[in-house]
Amino acid sequence: MLTDAQCLDLMSRLGAAFPDARAPDSKGGGDPFRSVVSCMLSAQSLDRNTAAASRALFALAATPEGILALSEDQIATAIRPCGLYNVKTRNLRRMCRALIDDHGGTVPRTRAGLMSLPGVGRKCADIVLSFTFGEAVVAVDTHVHRVCNRTGLASGKTEEQTAKSLDIRIPDAFRRRGHVLILAHGKQVCKSRAPRCDTCILADLCEGRTKT
Predict the structure, then answer these.
(1) Terminus-to-terminus CA distance in the chain, angstroms?
(2) Domain named HhH-GPD: which ranges (predicted)?
């Protein structure tokens, strides 16, 4: 694992390398309910497919009550681009029902409250907390999970374990932009297949690099 000083160095380099990094539109924007829905649709889906599914669904309904008024076929057809549409349709309806019955139709502002909703795990909860409610939380998706474990910034066999590790180790100055910076590096440089180690600005710090 990297030292605290190395973690700060690593994040500072990413901040300089990706000054314009921002969250994909598929993260849901400023509306809490849309953010939760978009995040649920993003599971095992490319950003562009999630965005297409979200647009199609929100053109039909953009409230818990509105989505529950739709038939399962209407929802499934709208969200088909993001894949797993039958499972996601059922989860969306269950989430909307719980939101109305247990939270008065208002999206919770805490991790525990968000994770109490059917179909919402820690990653989705942290994305909503960070990008919708402005909390200093670093959400861990597959890209962040991979970069953290390769470099030694954080560790964990699962995304949730890595999130807990990263929450302790990431420098406070990078809690708000940590996700987008690590995400950008994971998509552009530290790819799942054929990572660009030879041109990586983190090569001298990366524990994964020293093992190869």
Answers:
(1) 16
(2) 41-188
